[in-house]
Amino acid sequence: MRKPIRIIGVPMDLGQSQRGVDVGPSAIRYAGLASRLSRLGYTISDAGNIEVPVRNSLPQNDLIPTIHRACEAVYQAGSVAVAEGFCPIFLGGDHAISIGTIGGVTHAEPAGIIWIDAHGDFNTATTSSTGNIHGMALALLTGRGLEHLVHIGRPGPKIKAGDIALIGVRDLDGEERQLLKDSGIHIFTMRDIDEQGISRIANEALKRLKHRKRLHVSLDMDGLDPMEASGVGTPVPGGLTYREAHLLMEIIADSRRLCSMDIVEINPIIDNRNKTAKIAVDLAISLFGKRIL
């Protein structure tokens, strides 16, 4: 029996400087996420959006406290959804929302994390050249960085490095690169994908995470090549193709361990006819079990 799905929107663009990703939840809903999941046989509950203030209404020194409050609310929404038997799908918003989403879905039980992203998101306040929190999210979840954000929801790290598979990375800052090398995270770069193929990489990632019976997929749409998905805040050439991304989702779906998902960094303002949100929905449908035959 399929678990019911709860959709939770998080229209937050406070973790980065490019405006527009706060419209992402509406774009994904407009692209038909709920109706297409329903056609797969899922019962859908849409919980609406977490309340997040408009960035322009905030003084600069209130950004981090506001991110903290928003992610606390996301954490609670995620933990309640899991406790009530739902599989939550979080619609971002920038990738900083994962500080709350992953914390929430791991509140009662650990999960393996498949983090699909062009970037490492492993900077800290001392290594980041921009200070953007969305580039620190994975570090914060493992207990590195701003203490105020590390302790969202519950004290300390939310996930262990050995529970993370980072897939599609190709754009790292200098100090961030070394932090990742030393972290113990399972890292699969675009070179690895080019050399070995996405099927081998996907199966290897699942093997590395086999000690966890639940999987959370955090899908940053800039993990795809911008020729495929241009409506993202921080595009990086040389990413996953449409079919590579689909096969990755299909292989994860075959594991039958999926417990929750993030879809983040869609920026409809710079997109072409909502193409990136439509691709995100296509990928989510594959992740939740759509088959060719």
Structure description:
The protein is α/β, with parallel strands linked by helices and 293 residues long. The chain has a single domain (5-287), classed as Ureohydrolase domain (Arginase, Chain A). Helices cover 36% and strands 16% of the residues. The protein has helices at residues 24-30, 33-39, 63-83, 98-105, 137-141, 147-150, 174-183, 190-196, 198-208, 242-254, 275-287; strands spanning 5-10, 44-49, 87-92, 112-116, 164-169, 186-189, 215-220, 258-264. Helix 3 (63-83) packs parallel to helix 4. The longest helix has 21 residues, at 63-83.
Structural topology:
Layout: E1 5-10, H1 24-30, H2 33-39, E2 44-49, H3 63-83, E3 87-92, H4 98-105, E4 112-116, H5 137-141, H6 147-150, E5 164-169, H7 174-183, E6 186-189, H8 190-196, H9 198-208, E7 215-220, H10 242-254, E8 258-264, H11 275-287
Parallel strand pairs: 1-2, 1-3, 3-8, 4-5, 4-7, 5-6, 7-8
Radius of gyration: 17 Å
What is the string of SSEs from the N terminus onward? EHHEHEHEHHEHEHHEHEH
Structural class: alpha/beta
User: What's the N-to-C terminus distance?
Assistant: 20 Å
| CATH superfamily caption | Ureohydrolase domain
State the shape: globular
